Amino acid sequence: MPVGLVIMRWDERAGTELLARYPEEIVLSDKVLMQVTSTHEYSGEVGMISLSVGSLNIASYYTGPEQGYYILLLLNLEDDADEFEGGLAEASRRILHNLENDSYLPLIPSIFQRLSVYPSLNAEQRLANLYQDDIKRMIINRLRDEGVISKSELVIWLRDQYKTGIGDAEPVLLDLIKQEIIKESSVKSVSSELLFLIHDILLMRIPPSNLIKDPSSKGLPFHLIENYKSECAKFFQSYQPTEQDDLNILNIIIDPEVYTTLQLLRSAIVTRNDLEKLRKKGVDNLDKVLKTLWDAKMIQVFRDNQNNEYYALISDVYLDSVFPKYVLNTIKTNYENKSKADLVLVEYINVLENIYSEKKAKI
Predict the structure, then answer these.
(1) Quick one: angle between helices 151-161 and 134-146, nearest 10?
(2) Which of 210, 301, 300, 288 is nearest to 256 (CA)?
(3) Could you give the number of structural domains in the chain?
(4) Segment holding 134, helix H or strand E
(5) Could you check whether the bond before residue 208 is cis, i.e. omega within 30 degrees of 0?
(6) Residue 313 in contact with residue 299, Cβ under 8 Å?
(7) Are residues 333 and 315 both part of a single domain?
(8) How far is 89 from 258, CA to CA, in rounded Å?
(9) What is the pLDDT of residue 39?
(10) Same domain, yes or no: 308 and 206
(11) Which residues contact 207 (CB under 8 A, 6 or more apart)?
C-alpha cells in the first residue's frame, strides 16, 4: 500500500526542486532525490523505474527532458512497484495537463487515492480507467475507423491532434496492449510496427434487472414496487446516450467511494443505515457520493408510510471489452479501396482469427 506521493522537477541551476508532497509530513533527503534522478538519467528513457533506498521502496515515473517532471510513489517494502506502472503513467499525464497556474496541486490527494487502489482494481474499473483517458480514447476511435495503423503514423497523428502535447506515447500504447485492446505486430516490407484493434469497449446504461426482477427480496417494501418499476421505465424512455453521459459514468466507476456504493446498490435496495456501514469500507463522504449518483440519474429515493428512505438504482452500467466483428467490413472496404496493403490486411485477418479462436476455446 503506498504511503506517499512526491512531485519534483530537475532544474539545471537549482538541482532537484520539490513541487508537492502528500501527505505533507513526507520527507525525502536530497541524497534520495538525487539517486532517483541519476537512476532515470542512467536508463535514459521516459517511464517508470523502481529502486530501494534504505527502508524506502520507490516507484518513480519520469516524463522526459521536455517537461522534466518526476512523480515518486513511496511504497512499503512488500509492495510490487511494477503493479503501479499503469497508474503512474496515467497520473503523470493528468499532472502535465494541469500545469498551468499549478492547477494540478489540488488534484494531488485524489491522484494519490487512485494510485493507492490501482493494483486492486477489478476488470470493470481497469477498463473505465483506460477509456476515461482521452488519449487512449482517441486511439480507439481512430482504430474503430481503420482497424489497423502503423505505430509511427499514429504517434505523428496524436501529436498533431493533441495540441498540448502527449509526451511519450509508448506507455499509452503499452497499457492498451496489456489490456488486450490492441495488438502490436510487424509485416515484411512495412517499416513501422503495426497496431491492430483486437477488442473494442462497450459502455452503456442498462436497467438494474437483478433488482427489477424481485425488488421485495432485495429490500424494498411491497407497496413501493410499482413506483420503483415505473421510475426505472421512465428513465429509459427518455434516455439518450451521449459522450458526456459516458464520461460521467466512467467517473463514477473510477471514483473508489462512489464505486463501492454502486456495488452495494447493485445487489440490494438499502436504507440510509445500510449505507452508513460503508464508512468501514472507506466511504467517508456519503452525502457527496449520493449526490454524485443522484446527479447522474442512477439512483432514486423512495419513502414508506413511516418516512423511512430506501435508496435504489434506477439505471446500472454495462462496461466490457468485446470482439470487434464490425472490423471485417472495414477490412473489406480497405481491400476494395486499396487503402491498406494486402499483406497488412491478411495479417489483420490472421490476428483476428487467432483472437477469436482463443476466446471460443475458453467458452
Answers:
(1) 130
(2) 288
(3) 3
(4) helix 134-146
(5) no
(6) yes
(7) no
(8) 23
(9) 85
(10) yes
(11) 232, 236, 315, 316
Q: What are phi and psi of 206, to 5 degrees?
A: -135, 155
Q: Cβ neighbours of residue 70 under 8 Å, at least 6 residues apart?
A: 6, 7, 8, 9, 10, 36, 37, 40, 60, 61, 62, 63
CA distance 5 to 146: 40
Nearest to 1 by CA among 282, 285, 235: 282
- Whether 313 and 327 share a structural domain: no
CA dihedral defined by 147, 152, 158, 164, rounded to 10 degrees?
170
Give yes or no: residues 170 and 226 share one domain. Answer: no
Residue 3 is placed in which grid cell?
A: 504511503
CB 84 within 8 A of CB 74: no
pLDDT of residue 359: 84
Does residue 122 lie within any of the structural domains? Answer: no
Residue-wise pLDDT tens digits, 58-96? 999 998 877 888 999 999 888 999 899 888 988 888 888
Q: Do 288 and 148 meet the contact criterion of CB atoms below 8 Å apart?
A: no
CATH code of the domain covering residue 312:
1.10.10.10
AA letter at 158: L
Q: Which domain holds residue 355?
A: 127-199+323-362
Judge if 187 and 48 occupy the same domain.
no
Q: Would you call 261 helix, strand, or coil by DSSP?
A: helix
Q: Say yes or no: 45 and 27 in one domain.
A: yes
SS3 assignment for 271-309: CHHHHHHHHHHCCCCHHHHHHHHHHCCCEEEEECCCCCE
**Residue 121 lies inside a defined structural domain of this protein:** no
Q: Residue 237 belongs to what H/E stretch? A: helix 225-238
pTM: 0.82
